Amino acid sequence: MLVENLPVEQLENVIVSQTGQQITVRSFTNPDEVTYNITTTDDGDMQNCTCPDHQNSGTLCKHMFAVNQFLGVPFPPFTPSHSSSSSNLPVTSERSTTTPLQPLFEK
Length: 107
Prior knowledge:
21% helix, alpha+beta, zinc, single chain, zinc-finger, Znf_SWIM, zinc ion binding, 4 strands, 3 helices, metal-binding
């Protein structure tokens, strides 16, 4: 089940506490025994979650979605990641001579 489809009552039970820049949430799979911490920035945006999903992938996790849905805490600002395949691309310091309306393949 997707977090956005959970009833508000269930989202409310996921949130354990909010203190300063830390929000403690229950595990979805083992809620009676496991909690995770979501930290926020000085600006109030979510920064990270201690759950394995977020720690291993770096992507937004279901705990972050729950906190966003129930508490309205903003997601972290988008920062594009660089895949390992992009490291194989040539690096150049030459300036492009194309204009925004000129296709790249035309000379």
